[in-house]
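Incident log, support desk, overnight shift.

02:14 A customer reports that sequence design results differ from what the structure should imply. Their input is reproduced verbatim below. On-call engineer (initials T.W.) acknowledged and began investigating.
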């Protein structure tokens, strides 16, 4: 079977691998579509914090597929079912897991990083990590359930966003775009900020969905904040930049008594000036990963059309030339490239 394998920093190749066989409680999934996200790009570059990934490694953790075989003991899924995987596997035994905080498990493992992933024709996964895909959700759409679940957790669980709120999302990467779309589905007034490099693809993608955007290298974000909020400041700011300056920017543009939610993970340290946070009684919160419930929320949002997946995913990249997708993603020339491995 075909597999996209990382062999070194910024080195990936397409290899032939042996098809796996499901063990006890495992399901063999024929991969249909698999997406590329920011963490995949960091792993590709072998950035700081990702050097622990053993190489060579079959990449990919967000995907959809169909069950083609089941091992002994599988009682929740049958051959032919459409499924997606929760790729961050919690241990179920540590304090956080027992405390209902399994998304920050002490002993987690990630598909495509700790173990071989889903950039391949077939993969095996324990049935407890799967979700059934609703009949009305195409497999191509379901492939981005995982990043949509992250956005759902950030907006629906970790933020105080309500209909009519003025919301700023910093950073139009995949998570920023999906966070904006989920907030927009609640009836919030959403603005997404980006850079000049985002004006070719990512900001227009949002504008096509009637979400306002601003290029902060062309227009002062303070002026936009004043115009949108009548000088009060945004009710909620989501920082999805992954840049150390993102939280400071968020604090600058949120209103007193408002909330800043960190969704992106900064790769550099930051000296955060906290006086405005205290004086403005601003809540600074974080949102990491997602839970079972958030996966179900993501699938329901797609099922009822609240998330227009077709407008977000980019199917123009070929499994046989995967580096092209990584290079385009890192250059902000695309937002959510996906690889198609099988026909519907």
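02:41 Re-run completed on a clean worker. Output:
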């Amino acid at each position: 079977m075909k597999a996209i394998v990382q062999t070194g920093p910024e080195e990936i190749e397409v290899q032939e691998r042996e098809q796996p066989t499901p063990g006890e409680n495992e399901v063999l999934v024929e991969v249909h579509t698999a997406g590329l996200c920011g963490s995949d790009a960091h792993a590709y570059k072998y950035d700081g914090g990702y050097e622990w990934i053993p190489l060579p490694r079959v990449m990919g953790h967000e995907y959809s597929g169909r069950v083609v075989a089941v091992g002994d003991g599988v009682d929740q899924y049958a051959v032919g079912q459409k499924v997606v995987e929760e790729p961050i596997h919690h241990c179920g035994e540590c304090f956080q897991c027992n405390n209902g905080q399994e998304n920050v498990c002490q002993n987690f493992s990630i598909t495509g990083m700790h173990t071989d992933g889903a950039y391949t024709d077939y993969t095996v996964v324990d049935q407890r990590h799967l979700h059934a895909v609703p009949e009305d959700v195409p497999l191509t759409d379901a492939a981005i359930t995982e990043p949509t679940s992250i956005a759902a957790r950030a907006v629906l669980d970790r933020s105080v966003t309500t209909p009519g709120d003025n919301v700023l999302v910093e950073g139009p990467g995949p998570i920023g775009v999906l966070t904006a779309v989920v907030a927009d589905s609640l009836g919030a007034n959403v603005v997404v900020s980006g850079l000049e490099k985002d004006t070719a693809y990512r900001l227009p993608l949002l504008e096509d969905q009637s979400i306002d955007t601003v290029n902060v290298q062309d227009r002062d974000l303070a002026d936009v904040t004043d115009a949108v909020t009548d000088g009060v400041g945004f009710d909620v700011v989501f920082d999805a930049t992954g840049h150390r300056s993102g939280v400071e920017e968020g604090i600058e543009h949120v209103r007193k008594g408002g909330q800043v939610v960190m969704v992106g993970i900064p790769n550099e340290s930051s000296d955060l000036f906290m006086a405005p946070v205290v004086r403005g009684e601003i809540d600074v919160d974080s949102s990491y990963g997602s839970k079972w419930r958030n996966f179900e929320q993501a699938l329901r949002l797609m099922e009822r059309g609240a998330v227009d997946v077709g407008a977000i995913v980019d199917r123009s990249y070929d499994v046989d030339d995967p580096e092209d997708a990584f290079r385009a993603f890192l250059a902000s020339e695309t937002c959510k490239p996906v690889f198609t491995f099988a026909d519907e």
